[in-house]
From TrEMBL, chain A:
It holds the Pfam family Ras. InterPro entries: P-loop_NTPase, Small_GTP-bd, Small_GTPase. Residues 140-174, 227-263 are annotated as: Disordered. Keywords: Nucleotide-binding. It comes from Lobosporangium transversale. Residues 150-173 have a biased composition (Acidic residues). This is Ras-domain-containing protein. One of its GO terms (molecular function) is GTPase activity. Coiled coil: none annotated.
From TrEMBL, chain B:
One of its GO terms (molecular function) is GTPase activator activity. It comes from Lobosporangium transversale. Keywords: Coiled coil, GTPase activation. This is Rab-GTPase-TBC domain-domain-containing protein. Gene3D superfamilies: putative rabgap domain of human tbc1 domain family member 14 like domains, Ypt/Rab-GAP domain of gyp1p, domain 1, Ypt/Rab-GAP domain of gyp1p, domain 3. It comes from the Eukaryota. Residues 312-346, 390-445 form a coiled coil. The keyword Nucleotide-binding does not apply.
Length: 263, 449
């Protein structure tokens, strides 16, 4: 995500009507949902990000071939107690990113239960991406390469923040991977999901998640249905969250405008 | 984030602090309040002196409880189920506040109070948001006192329901807030409706963290001041005051800008004048009667919703059954279709066979007709021939009859000849007999030899 790409996508963004894609992030508490969005939207990483209370909303524009896609992202709270609020955010979504933490096996189980719920309750055509986050913490990961010298220090900080709920590990600095890539990938394939491993911290794989989602979503369909009725929304009128009324084809305010990935 | 500066900024109000009042209040709360209840409200609006804040809060909430403090010390020794989760959130609570940094003293106190509470109230356990409520307490008092005050807030200030698994009071609070909005800031309410903004999207944060999640702490402290005197409903007043203060700006924002503004921009207006914030909140009219009314409406709505959910569930259930039935029927239709196709094929072959047979039949019929014709014409010939034959037979018969008659005539003449012959034979016989006797006589006569 370079400045050039930003500028390019900006020019196009201003000239074309973007396709709005409603996306929801789900997953256990502290797996890095908000951090993933922050990386995608602002290309930032914030150590010790506050837990999301309720939900947060962010947008980001992307370019895919000749189209501009505007992701309208609901970032939900992960704690089980907020679970009942989630349907309001995923009901109308065309895409979902279900996040787990590769260093925490139980978070994959939670992710699976989210996938099940989505497949049962959400829009039947919803594109779901399973995303194992925090690969920067595991050195033997599939793409466990180091990208900067400061990683070592940052890693220690992150470990302090990510004390695990499971019995083993923690105090020592060798945080181990608890979810093998193959296992999660096999599950994703079986359940018909896109699959990624990411690091919100160093940015690895993050843009890819959204690019692949954009590729898989039937954009033409969304375009034609949004053209038809502005008020109804793509997912019908049953969803209580109506993102259709959000700014459309208009410059976004403030920070949300800075990013921009060239999908 | 200049939360850290919050304290310093507020100190500037300190010059006109009525130390006598606060001193006497601390000394004899009941007496002072009884003597002039309105004065307390007035003084609180002006602001509690930061140096006394912790003590005053505890007095206002009457949370001092040595027994509970002792319990707290005991709870610290126990292990909570939620410890790891709490730990995970510690560095994520006021991450930019010096006191709550990893190496700061605050984080340990925060952990202790939140952990102790999770043990003290197992139904609530640990809920994200709680640590943001505890933080401002710890900035004003030691942890055991903060724990007692937290317990008081949860119980007597009806905040428990903001954090219980069903978050029932939070839902009610959000509903009451929307109702109040409709009444007090109808244009904003309408604008939110049009833009699809729901109170859950921005106000759950307010009520679950007492505005501490995003707001500058000097504002948050003032909110706590009022809350301890006026009760938890004052949160609604602050919320409305914020919307009122930003009324025009809000109406100009669309969905996206609003979501951001409600979280990050709303407090800008009051940043320099916290006292005005408190005064504006006081001017929002919220009567208990009205809130009770809203609560009733909310209960009715929840009941209706639950009924709808139940209905929906049963519909879904029957839908599942029907879908299964449809699938079954579709399968049946499929086999029937297959059978139908086979039958159709069969029908076609049969029809073709029939056509062929028809053709054969036609040919045969034609043959029959031809043959009939042949037969008809032949019969005549045969008849003619027969007639001819009969004629000739009859002629022959006639001829034969004639021949027969001739033969009969011949026969008769032969019979006559025979009779004549026989008569001649008989006469000859007689002659022979007479001659024989004449011979014999002659012999006798001649003398027997």
């Amino acid at each position: 995500m370079s400045q050039t790409n930003d500028a390019a996508s900006q020019v196009i963004a201003n000239n074309m009507k973007p396709v709005q894609v409603k996306l929801v992030l789900l997953g256990e508490a502290a797996v890095g949902k908000s951090s993933l969005v922050l990386r995608f939207v602002n290309d930032e990483f914030q150590e010790n990000k506050e837990p999301t209370i309720g939900a947060a909303f962010l947008t980001q524009k992307c370019r895919l071939e000749d189209k501009v896609i505007k992701f309208e992202i609901w970032d939900t709270a992960g704690q089980e107690r907020f679970h009942s609020l989630a349907p309001m955010y995923y009901r109308n979504a065309q895409a979902a990113v279900v996040v787990y933490d590769v260093t925490k096996a139980s978070s994959l189980e939670k992710a699976k239960s989210w996938v099940k719920e989505l497949q049962r309750q959400a829009n039947p055509n919803i594109v779901i991406a399973l995303t194992g986050n925090k690969v920067d913490l595991v050195s033997t990961g599939r793409k466990g390469r180091r990208t900067s010298e400061s990683d070592q220090d940052e890693e220690e900080e992150q470990e302090a923040m990510d004390l695990d709920e499971d019995e083993e590990d923690d105090e020592d600095y060798g945080i181990s991977r608890q979810v093998p890539t193959e296992e999660a990938s096999a599950y994703a394939q079986e359940a018909g999901l896109l699959f990624f491993e990411t690091s919100a911290k160093n940015g690895e794989g993050v843009a890819e998640v959204f690019t692949e989602i954009a590729k898989k979503i039937p954009l033409e369909h969304i375009l034609s249905s949004t053209r038809g009725s502005r008020a109804g929304g793509v997912g019908g009128s049953n969803g209580r969250v109506d993102l259709q009324n959000g700014a459309n084809g208009q410059r976004l305010g403030g920070q949300q405008d800075k990013g921009g990935c060239a999908c | 984030m200049d939360r850290v500066l919050g304290h310093a900024k507020e100190e500037s109000v300190g010059e006109d602090v009525d130390w006598d009042y606060w001193g006497s209040l601390m000394h004899d709360y009941d007496g002072v309040v009884k003597k002039n209840p309105k004065q307390l409200t007035l003084m609180i609006q002006k602001g509690v002196p930061p140096a006394l804040r912790g003590l005053i809060w505890q007095i206002l909430a009457q949370s001092k409880n040595p027994q509970l403090e002792a319990d707290y010390a005991e709870l610290l020794k126990a292990t909570s189920l939620h410890e790891k989760q709490i730990n995970r959130d510690m560095s994520r609570t006021f991450p930019n506040h010096e006191y709550f940094q990893a190496e700061g003293l605050g984080q340990e106190s925060l952990f202790n109070v939140v952990k102790a509470y999770s043990l003290y109230d197992s139904e609530v356990g640990y809920c994200q948001g709680l640590s943001f409520v505890v933080g401002p307490l710890l900035l004003n008092m030691p942890d055991e006192e903060a724990f007692c005050l937290l317990v008081r807030m949860m119980k007597s200030y009806d905040m428990r329901g903001h954090f219980t698994p069903d978050m029932s009071t939070l839902q009610l609070r959000l509903y009451q807030f929307e109702q109040l909005m409709e009444e007090t800031v109808p244009l904003v309410y309408k604008h939110f409706q049009n833009q699809g903004i729901r109170s859950t999207m921005y106000a759950s944060q307010w009520f679950m963290t007492l505005f501490a999640y995003k707001f500058p702490l000097d504002l948050v402290f003032r909110i706590y001041d009022i809350l301890f005197v006026e009760g938890v409903e004052s949160l609604l007043r602050f919320g409305i005051a914020l919307l009122k203060a930003n009324h025009d700006q809000i109406l100009h924002h669309d969905f996206e800008a609003l979501v951001d503004f409600l979280k990050n921009g709303l407090f800008e207006y009051y940043k320099v004048t916290t006292t005005l914030f408190v005064q504006d909140a006081f001017n929002v009219k919220v009567t208990p009667k009205k809130l009770a009314q809203y609560a009733q409406k909310h209960a009715a709505m929840i009941q209706k919703q639950q009924a709808e959910i139940a209905a929906e569930e049963s519909l879904r259930e029957s839908n599942r059954h029907l879908s299964a039935e449809v699938r079954r029927l579709e399968a049946t239709v499929h086999t029937l279709n297959k059978e139908h196709v086979e039958l159709a094929k069969e029908l076609i072959t049969r029809k073709m066979e029939m056509a062929q047979l028809q053709d054969k039949n036609d040919v045969l019929s034609q043959k029959v007709i031809d043959l009939t014709k042949i037969v008809d014409s032949q019969a005549k010939e045969v008849e003619d021939r027969l007639k001819g034959e009969i004629q000739s037979v009859m002629e022959r018969n006639l001829e034969l009859t004639r021949k027969n008659e001739q033969l009969e005539d011949q026969c008769a003449s032969l019979e006559n000849m025979l009779i004549e012959t026989k008569m001649k034979y008989a006469a000859s016989e007689d002659q022979r007999d007479a001659l024989t006797r004449k011979l014999a006589d002659l012999r006798k006569a001649l003398g027997v030899v």
